[in-house]
Amino acid sequence: MTDNHVSGMEASAVSVLKRAVELDQSGRFQDSLVCYQEGIQLLIDVLKALKDESKRGHYREKIKGYMDRAEQIKAQVNQMKEDGKYHEQIKIPEDATGFSYEALFKPYISSALSEVWVEDPYIRHTHQLYNFLRFCEMLLKLCSKVKRIHLLTSQDEQADKTQQSSALSELRDSLGGQGVTLDVQYSSTIHDREIRFDNGWIIKIGRGLDYFKKPQGRFSIGYCDYDLRRCQETSVDIFHTKHTKTL
Fold this sequence. Notes:
Blueprint: H1 3-25, H2 29-49, H3 53-83, E1 87-92, H4 101-105, E2 115-119, H5 126-142, E3 148-153, H6 162-177, E4 181-186, E5 194-197, E6 201-205, E7 234-240
Parallel strand pairs: 2-3, 3-4
Antiparallel strand pairs: 1-7, 2-5, 5-6, 6-7
């Protein structure tokens, strides 16, 4: 491994661990834990490549310190989950970027996740239907064991309902080809937005899945990559419960 490669890994580790500390200090423990784990692995890779024993000792100390903090956070989060007191809030500022569905939901998606409930009254119009499609794609990408997705939404009484029902029917067939069942139900009284995973995590986004701004054009940055798409200001509240919905 070249010196440049090692230096690149060192820089990446510093960046990730700096973000881990920032998230830790702001109380975003689950997000910080993911960054600590990623950063620690990068430092371990650097350690394996180093030959200088003094540097190796320095990195061993660093790794131990970060591992100890990661274990403390894990124990703290597990205790809060056990007590039913876990609550975390993420503020998404106006025009912020970096809040794609994958970036937002990844810390709460475990390998055992198999069932998801989405309650969002605004999965009606074209861009909202695409949002839901992207959310489903994110689930399939991050967790191969997802087998059932439930959607509770509303119908626009003043618009043609054909587009909504046709799009969701097409998505149902497409997910079925991936071994995933999509269950769609409608409610005329739904108002709250909530996403619930069967591993106990509950995510409530003030604007639901529709928190992205319209891109400036079809060939502008952020049109395809939602990490680069500007957001509308909203808040995200994350809870954990040992009791999840059942069919």
